[in-house]
Specification:
The protein is α/β, with parallel strands linked by helices. Helix 1 packs across helix 10 and helix 5 packs across helix 6. The longest helix is centred in the last third of the chain and has 24 residues.
Length: about 300
């Protein structure tokens, strides 16, 4: 089996990171390709030798399910759900939730009980609306919860990727972005998804940076599920270049690939013709582009 199809990770990464990095793929709307990008990019980064952790902040736990199936492809021991993400938040520690998936790839799994995060945060810190005198204090505590929980984990990983649910302006997305060094703005090349990317940048991201002083930057804007020759796709892509600047878009525009829909059923693998084709034509170029952009912002050692 050649190195382009095996799931065996590299012995060591080609270039080391100057620091551990936390990254969230973000948009203000569902159907933006966030979970797909998070799953495949983290998997491929791990195959390149970087110790990688996925944090699933989505109560639907779709990424958790696909990763557990991925684990089953490599590990005959059946997986049993232990302590949940929400229990970890309540206990003030996530360190004992880490589940190995394949060599170099780990997961903190989600569960439906994580849907109670907003209620938990409100009970802990209160409720305030923009304009209220205590808004910055109340919301500042809420958005910092996940960041504080990740600090003890950072020393053990090169990358932490956070997956978020398809909801607008939520405690899930805001806490993930606040915890991140970089965000990748993802959108499918459709009008609603593109609008969601703009709303996220002008709304949540702007407030988190300017009001709550998040040390978060945009690594790039990533159009995906692009269908060449599609009138809407081409129009939205041109609008994105004008709105964000061509230099801020990932060089590799992710094409539409039906194969990505198989991940929830079969897990993620490079093995087999169609999986190999998906990685060679879409995921490998994306991963190359990802590291190129990290190099441009000075995150890689020579």
């Amino acid at each position: 089996m050649d190195e382009n199809t095996t799931d065996t990770p590299a012995i060591a990464p080609k270039r080391s990171l100057k620091r551990p990095l936390t990254i969230t793929v973000a948009n203000n709307k569902g159907g933006a390709g966030k979970s797909t990008i998070t799953r495949y990019l983290s998997f491929n980064v791990a195959l390149r030798g970087y110790k990688t952790l996925i944090i699933d902040e989505d109560p639907s736990a779709n990424t958790t399910k696909s990763m557990i199936i991925t684990k089953a492809r490599h590990d005959e021991e059946p997986y049993t759900m232990g302590k949940t993400m929400m229990a970890g938040v309540r206990d003030g520690s996530l360190t004992d939730l880490v589940v190995p998936i394949i060599p170099n790839l780990y997961l903190i799994p989600s569960h439906i009980d994580f849907a109670s995060l907003p209620v938990y945060l409100s009970k802990q810190y209160g409720v305030a609306e923009p304009g209220d005198p205590d808004y910055q204090d109340v919301e500042g505590h809420k958005v910092a919860v996940i960041k504080n929980l990740l600090e003890p984990l950072k020393k053990d990983f090169n990358f932490i990727f956070i997956d978020t649910p398809p909801t607008t302006s939520s405690d899930f997305t805001r806490s993930a972005v606040f915890a991140s060094d970089y965000v990748i703005i993802a959108f499918q090349t459709q009008a609603d998804s593109f609008d969601g990317a703009i709303q996220f940048i002008d709304g949540d991201l702007s407030e988190l940076v300017h009001v709550f002083k998040a040390n978060t930057d945009v690594l790039g804007v990533l159009p995906n599920q692009f269908a060449p020759g599609g009138t809407i796709d081409e129009t939205v892509l041109n609008d994105a270049r004008q709105r964000f600047g061509k230099q801020n878009l990932f060089e590799h525009i992710l094409p539409y690939k039906k194969r990505v829909q198989s991940a929830p059923r079969i897990g993620i693998t490079r093995e087999g013709y169609w999986n190999s084709d998906l990685f060679k034509t879409a995921i490998d170029p994306l991963t190359d582009d990802f590291f190129h952009r990290l190099d441009l912002v000075g995150e890689l050692n020579d």
